[in-house]
Amino acid sequence: MQRNSVAKKSHSCPPQAPPRLSRQQQTVLNGLNQQPHPISAQRLHRFLKQQHSIGLATVYRTLETLKLRGLVQIRAGVQGESLYSSVEQDRHYLTCLRCGQSLVLDACPVGELQRQLQRTFPFKIYYHTLEFFGLCSLCKLQTSKNPS
Known about the structure:
CATH superfamily of the largest domain: Winged helix-like DNA-binding domain superfamily/Winged helix DNA-binding domain
Radius of gyration: 22 Å
CATH architecture of the largest domain: Orthogonal Bundle
CATH topology of the largest domain: Arc Repressor Mutant, subunit A
Distance between the termini: 87 Å
Structural class: alpha+beta
CATH class of the largest domain: Mainly Alpha
């Protein structure tokens, strides 16, 4: 009995261009790119409403879609509120637990680690976050004077 074997072709598909953004997605992403710091969905909505007719629910849905496409990143504020920014704004922070002030680090200390992980594992990394929590110098000083 003879077996017919079918040779599997080994071919690579040409890389696909990322799907185009809808008008609403582009509007939300442009709005994020205009912000100097990560912003809540509510504040982004207020900002966008100055020039566009867009609902808060649409902003939330669009941010979620953009996050899943790797175009938006989220970080939690000290009060637990989600803060959004474009992944192109690769920022890392020192955040004070008392006053909520966030200081931006000048350089990304984990960029090389991300590149190494991307090469090592079959995993598409969209973005990473790094945040240190503690007390700023003013709050630390106030705490040492008034330890209650």
